[in-house]
Automatic annotation (TrEMBL):
<comment type="similarity">
    <text>Belongs to the methylglyoxal synthase family.</text>
</comment>
<feature type="binding site">
    <location>
        <begin position="54"/>
        <end position="55"/>
    </location>
    <ligand>
        <name>substrate</name>
    </ligand>
</feature>
<dbReference type="Pfam" id="PF02142">
    <property type="entry name" value="MGS"/>
</dbReference>
<feature type="active site" description="Proton donor/acceptor">
    <location>
        <position position="60"/>
    </location>
</feature>
<dbReference type="InterPro" id="IPR004363">
    <property type="entry name" value="Methylgl_synth"/>
</dbReference>
<protein>
    <recommendedName>
        <fullName>Methylglyoxal synthase</fullName>
        <ecNumber>4.2.3.3</ecNumber>
    </recommendedName>
</protein>
<feature type="domain" description="MGS-like">
    <location>
        <begin position="1"/>
        <end position="136"/>
    </location>
</feature>
<comment type="function">
    <text>Catalyzes the formation of methylglyoxal from dihydroxyacetone phosphate.</text>
</comment>
<feature type="binding site">
    <location>
        <begin position="34"/>
        <end position="37"/>
    </location>
    <ligand>
        <name>substrate</name>
    </ligand>
</feature>
<dbReference type="GO" id="GO:0019242">
    <property type="term" value="P:methylglyoxal biosynthetic process"/>
</dbReference>
<dbReference type="InterPro" id="IPR036914">
    <property type="entry name" value="MGS-like_dom_sf"/>
</dbReference>
<dbReference type="InterPro" id="IPR011607">
    <property type="entry name" value="MGS-like_dom"/>
</dbReference>
<dbReference type="GO" id="GO:0005829">
    <property type="term" value="C:cytosol"/>
</dbReference>
<feature type="binding site">
    <location>
        <position position="12"/>
    </location>
    <ligand>
        <name>substrate</name>
    </ligand>
</feature>
<keyword id="KW-0456">Lyase</keyword>
<dbReference type="GO" id="GO:0008929">
    <property type="term" value="F:methylglyoxal synthase activity"/>
</dbReference>
<feature type="binding site">
    <location>
        <position position="87"/>
    </location>
    <ligand>
        <name>substrate</name>
    </ligand>
</feature>
């Protein structure tokens, strides 16, 4: 599975801790991330992550392009709902694309944990069906 990881500044430590906790599961998947989030995760884990630009500099849009091309299967985006984000339109666009293309999206630890447990059990086989039809 191809998984994107994004975290607002005040949620980066939470994301790193989450990735440490589930590192054995994530090692089996292809990971993508916005710049700073990916760097912080790689500093604390042995995970390999393809990093894009920082979110405000276009990283959110790069991930959005992958969604539109059906190149992502799951997004974990730890958002900070209490702090105004200068790139809020990009964040809204990313969330909208997840809805349009039926990409599972976790915006907090509780939901991310449910999705990772499903990932561990292989409950994302339906994404393989979508990939199969896309490639025809």
């Amino acid at each position: 599975m191809k998984i994107a990881l994004i975290a607002h500044d005040k949620k980066k430590i939470e994301m790193v801790n989450f990735m440490i906790a589930y590192e054995p599961i994530f090692k089996k998947h292809e990971l993508f991330s916005t710049g700073t989030t990916g760097t912080k995760i790689m500093e604390q884990t042995n995970l390999k992550i393809q990093r894009f630009m920082s979110g405000p500099l276009g990283g959110d849009q790069q991930i959005g392009a992958m969604i539109a091309e059906n190149e992502l299967d799951l997004i974990i985006f730890f958002r900070d709902p209490l702090t105004a984000q200068p790139h809020e339109p990009d964040v809204s666009a990313l969330l909208r694309l997840c809805d349009v293309y039926s990409i599972p999206l976790a915006t907090n630890v509780a939901t991310a944990e449910i999705l990772v447990r499903a990932l561990e059990k292989g409950d994302f086989a339906w994404r393989d069906v979508i990939h199969k039809y896309k490639n025809k």
